[in-house]
Amino acid sequence: MSTEYTVTETLDVKGESCPMPVVKTKGAIDGLSDDEVLEVIATDSGSMSDIAGWAEATSGVELLDQQDEGDVFKHYVRKTQ
C-alpha cells in the first residue's frame, strides 16, 4: 500500500455499521474524479475487512492505506477510473 497521497474528500461514517460504510464509500467514490483520494473515517471495526474486500473486488478503485487508531478506523481509497 502506498503512503504518498493527498486526500481530496473525507467521508465520516462514524456510528454506522455494516454495510453502510461500504455503501457510502462507493457513493462518495462515484462522485470523485480519477486519481482523487477519499478518506473514510469509521468506528465499525468490521470496516477494515469490509472496505478492503470491496476495494479488491471493485475495478476502478485502489485501497492505499488503512489505519487502526483504536476506536477509529481510517481508510484511504483512490479512484483509478
UniProtKB/TrEMBL annotation:
<dbReference type="InterPro" id="IPR036868">
    <property type="entry name" value="TusA-like_sf"/>
</dbReference>
<comment type="similarity">
    <text>Belongs to the sulfur carrier protein TusA family.</text>
</comment>
<protein>
    <recommendedName>
        <fullName>UPF0033 domain-containing protein</fullName>
    </recommendedName>
</protein>
<dbReference type="InterPro" id="IPR001455">
    <property type="entry name" value="TusA-like"/>
</dbReference>
<feature type="domain" description="UPF0033">
    <location>
        <begin position="9"/>
        <end position="79"/>
    </location>
</feature>
<dbReference type="Pfam" id="PF01206">
    <property type="entry name" value="TusA"/>
</dbReference>
